[in-house]
Design goal:
heterodimer, A: 346 residues, alpha/beta, Rossmann fold, 2 domains, eight-stranded mixed sheet, three-stranded antiparallel sheet, globular, B: 616 residues, Pyruvate-ferredoxin Oxidoreductase, domain 3, seven-stranded mixed sheet, 22 strands, 36% helix
Chain lengths: 346, 616
């Protein structure tokens, strides 16, 4: 990873520390909630990102995750259900010199805010979106969400859900997303690395965090994250490196015909050279989509930055358009406009 | 042609023309060109386009009739008139739809070539109305327009379709002759518009001239009319529609306040033109965001307001319903925000291109919780400029969301606008917090109760706001019962404090008398015309037209108290009268309502006032 950020957001003239971002508010998430780990990762990585501390803005919607702005010492806006993405769009377009961070959950962004979610991605507005995916409605005490697995038993699906869930990565790429990464709350080191990459990316960066709800959906990701299975069921993608996983890094992903396939090094003549090398910057999303869709039991679930493709951002295009029209227009102020076109004097 | 050679010229004060035809006949353009010419020749004018929601309804059907009404005068006028002196009907369907709007003895100009059996039947006539006694009471001018334009352009290298499309210009030529108007302004327009295609420009000019000469030769036209220039206040003028005036008023407020203008909006009739107009003005730094829906329109604006912009959203009734929750958010975070509602006939989709004033109660009370905000209603197309400016000004200076109510009638309609100088408009000073000062989000000015605006990026002012109730001064999340009641009362009082800055309610006429006519919003012109008519007739009738709705002007009760009767006229089922009753129950109101998607006519208003006066 390239460890510096190059854009127009003003940097802090002095070195910031974690303490610069710690809020004086009591954090009211349940003990053991995965959200605490995400908050600590933010506090840790923000000084590294290095912008002036007043240039960070957190915007959230409604839900457990959306209390986040109160718990971090930046400018913050706690919005209404589903609309954080739209509010944040306004913040960033109004002032592209801000580093805008959206905190949302699987209910907030995939259900009530689904429309705004796909459209902010399509526009490629330069914001960072942390999607806390716990596959449940926590703040309303345990109803299924759009990411709950088919058949999930919850308070509103006592006999199991009969809905197919969204895979957020698929939705992001389907909406022409330029950045998608997946993290898991039990791996804070990877989470901070991903947050840095998200900040570095110009465009809408979506970071899905698989996050455990200890009260209403405890252990929902154990099948991926339990110590005894995690090496085989998770793969951490790194740009430029072969896609290897397993405790001994002896399993890998290859592309056979039009599909990804899990192979074992040494079996059927497979060597490391046959393994796909991850290219997060590829403009073509084909492989990225396949990687985002990988799921147990046939595949390991992909973590890390899956896609980080460079495309123009909405906010840059807006500023460029304004600058170019301003330069060529004869109208310089309202008096000019009021007196332009067809007028007559009496 | 010199005046001497002209046919019998009759001087008249005031003329109403209604252009009507199929949606594709170019009636809006024809009307606009005529309007520009009468403006350049010094008349006061007002226009109102009246068109269907469908873009191109089936040809020659009543559903596809598009109209444009124009009134011009030697006097100052307040509306686009009731009945017309001249109706242009390009086909049988437009005659059928519009005949009821023609004065007895008025002139009707038709394209005779379009009155074939098929078109007559489609319009629902059994016989050709041009040849039975249907139009006996009118002065009928039958022009074979299709034939004439084909003849006029027979030497041009134009396809038949393009030739036939110039018919509207033939009608325009006839009207210019009828009203002794010069052709040069329209010619200039055509030269500019068809700069790259001079063939089309020349063809249109030829057709206008052909229409002009046709009018000069036929017997049906024995005299022509001349409306002398109006005695308007000296100055520079332009013609402006309400929607463009709204856009410019917001831009003027942005310039005066030094704030960038942000518009988050979703296209909706009849408000879309404001978004389209603002989208043109990147040169003045305007940022327009065409959102994915109405909710994103307003919430993006709230985000932009948090970030320090003069933020606006524009919509009509159904869109306003969708924005309700976010309007409450703007109330509780106490950020400036201008919501423009260009009202249309509801409920639901209703009649999108027709006007109504039925969103008032939604605007005043249509949110969860106690969520008061400033409400101002524009009175006319040109007043939209000042009303938008004022709404933005008070919103910015008092840190409150605000609604500007206009409607389809004044939004689409146009009138003569005296161009203001920016230096003559009041300054706008939003209460921005200074960097590195001690900042508490809900610390307030003790007089106005206005909190300070701390814009992200400013050093030393990091803070959090949001939709959860907060403690006063400190802005901590709180469910404390006493604090909640305190905040509810403060937020209301803050908005009510704006009343101290509002001008007192004016009365047109005496402060006491037999009848006070009350109106609000876009009906100003028609109601004022009717009241002036009554006053000239010697009746003790006065008029109070309300622009400031919430809060009401401080002297409202005093204004309402000086008359034997008070009649409240509205284009709804009685919403403002309910609101007045709630505030001033001691006044015995009479209500007069029209809910037809149409403006009041002077005739129906004066009849109503006369009837009320008889009962005194």
């Amino acid at each position: 990873m390239i460890q510096f950020i190059d854009n127009t957001i003003e940097k802090s003239p002095y070195k910031l520390t974690k303490e610069d971002f710690v809020s004086d508010q009591m954090v009211k998430w349940c003990p053991g909630c995965g959200d605490h780990a995400i908050l600590r990762s933010v506090e840790k990585i923000f000084p590294e990102i290095g912008y002036k501390k007043e240039n960070f803005v957190f915007v959230s919607g409604i839900g457990c995750s959306s209390r986040f702005p109160y718990y971090v010492h930046t400018y913050g806006f706690h919005g209404i259900h589903g609309r954080a993405t739209a509010i944040a769009s306004g913040v960033k377009i109004a002032n592209p010199g801000l580093s805008v961070w959206i905190v949302t959950g699987d209910g907030d962004s995939m259900a009530i805010g689904g429309n705004h979610f796909i459209h902010i991605i399509r526009r490629n507005i330069d914001v960072n979106l942390l999607l806390f995916n716990n596959q449940i409605y926590g703040l309303t005490k345990g109803q299924y969400s759009p990411t709950s697995a088919l058949g999930a038993v919850t308070k509103t699906s006592p006999y199991g859900t009969i809905e197919h869930p969204f895979n957020p990565g698929e939705l992001v790429l389907g909406a022409s997303g330029t950045f998608f990464a997946r993290a898991v709350d039990i791996n804070p080191k990877l989470m901070t690395e991903i947050m840095f990459e998200a900040a570095k990316h110009d465009g809408t960066s979506v970071v899905e965090v698989l996050q455990n709800c200890v009260i209403f959906n405890d252990g929902t990701f154990d099948y991926l994250t339990a110590k005894e299975v995690r090496d085989d069921r998770l793969i951490i993608l790194k740009h430029g490196e072969p896609m290897l996983f397993g405790a001994n890094k002896d399993k890998g992903i290859i592309l056979r015909n039009t599909k990804l396939e899990v192979v074992k090094i040494g079996e059927n003549g497979i060597t490391v050279d046959d393994i796909l090398v991850h290219d997060q910057y590829s403009l073509d999303p084909g492989i990225h989509l396949m990687l985002a869709k990988m799921s147990a039991p046939n595949y390991p679930v992909a973590l890390g930055v899956i896609r980080s493709a460079k495309f123009p951002t909405y906010d840059d295009l807006m500023e460029e358009q304004i600058a170019s029209i301003k330069a060529s227009s004869k109208i310089k102020n309202m008096d000019d406009l009021l007196n332009s076109g067809e007028t007559w004097t009496i | 042609m010199s005046e001497k050679e002209r046919k019998n010229v009759l001087e008249v004060e005031d003329v109403v023309i209604r252009f009507s035809g199929d949606s594709g006949d170019g009636m809006q353009l024809t009307g606009t060109l005529f309007a520009d010419t009468v403006a350049f020749t010094g008349n006061d004018l007002a226009t109102f386009p009246d068109f269907p929601a469908e873009i191109r309804a089936p040809q020659n059907t009543v559903a596809g009739v598009s109209g444009f009404q124009l009134r011009f005068s030697k006097n100052k006028i307040h509306n686009s008139g009731d009945l017309c002196d001249v109706l242009v009907a390009m086909n049988p369907a437009s005659l059928k739809t519009n005949l009821k709007w023609v004065k007895r003895g008025g002139t009707i100009l038709v394209d005779e070539d379009n009155f074939d059996d098929k078109a007559i039947e489609k319009a629902g006539y059994t016989n050709n109305p041009l040849y039975d006694d249907h139009l006996a009471q009118y002065n009928l001018i039958k022009a074979p327009m299709k034939k004439m334009v084909r003849e006029a352009l027979k030497d041009e290298k134009l396809d038949q379709k393009s030739v036939d499309r110039t018919k509207n210009m033939f009608a325009l030529g006839i009207l210019y002759f009828l009203f002794n108007k010069p052709l040069e302004y329209t010619f200039k327009f055509l030269d500019t518009k068809f700069k790259k295609n001079p063939l089309i420009a020349d063809a249109n000019k030829k057709v206008i001239q052909a229409g002009y000469h046709f009018a000069d030769t036929i017997e049906a036209i024995s005299k022509t009319a001349l409306v002398p220039p109006a005695n308007l206040i000296k100055g520079k003028y332009r013609n402006i529609t309400g929607n463009v005036a709204t856009a410019w008023g917001l831009m003027a407020a942005a310039e005066k306040s030094g704030r960038q203008l942000f518009l988050g909006s979703y296209p909706i009739t009849p408000a879309t033109e404001i978004l389209m107009e603002l989208a043109k003005h990147r040169e003045l730094g305007v940022k327009t965001f065409q959102a994915e829906d109405e909710i994103a329109g307003i919430t993006s604006a709230i985000g932009a307001s948090f970030a320090g912009s003069l933020a606006c959203t524009t919509t009509s009734g159904p869109g306003l319903s969708l924005k309700s929750e976010a309007m409450g958010l703007a109330v509780i975070v106490e950020l400036p925000l201008v919501v423009v509602d260009v009202q249309r006939a509801g409920p639901s989709t209703g009649m999108p291109t027709k006007s109504e004033q039925a969103d008032l109660l939604q605007v005043l009370f249509g949110r969860n919780g106690e969520a008061p905000m400033l409400v101002i209603a524009a009175a006319s197309p040109a007043d939209c400029f000042y009303a938008a400016f004022e709404t933005a000004r008070y919103s910015l200076e008092h840190m409150t969301p605000a609604v500007l109510l206009t409607d389809g009638y004044i939004g689409f309609g146009s009138e003569v606008f005296k161009i203001p100088k920016m230096s003559g408009l009041p300054e706008i000073k939003p209460p921005l917090a200074e960097p590195n000062t001690e900042y508490k989000p809900y610390q307030r000015d003790p007089e106005t109760l206005v909190r300070k605006w701390a814009v992200p990026g400013t050093e030393g002012l990091r803070h959090r706001i949001g939709g959860l109730e907060k403690t006063n001064v400190f802005g901590q999340v709180s469910t404390d019962p006493q604090n909640h009641e305190l905040m509810i009362r403060i937020r209301k009082e803050k908005v009510m404090n704006i009343q101290k800055r509002l001008p007192l309610q004016e009365i047109l006429g005496e402060k006491e008398g037999d009848l006070l006519v009350v109106s609000w919003g876009g009906t100003s012109g028609s109601v004022r015309s009717a009241v002036e008519y009554m006053q000239k007739d010697g009746h003790k009738v006065s008029h109070a037209h309300f622009r400031y709705i919430y809060p009401l002007p401080a002297n409202t009760l005093e204004v309402l108290s000086g008359y034997k009767k008070v009649v409240v006229c509205e284009l709804n089922d009685g919403q403002f009268v309910k609101y007045l009753t709630m505030n001033f129950p001691q006044i015995p109101y009479i209500q007069y309502n029209k809910i037809q998607g149409l403006p009041f006519t002077t005739i129906e208003l004066t009849e109503k006032f006369t009837q009320i006066l008889k009962e005194i």
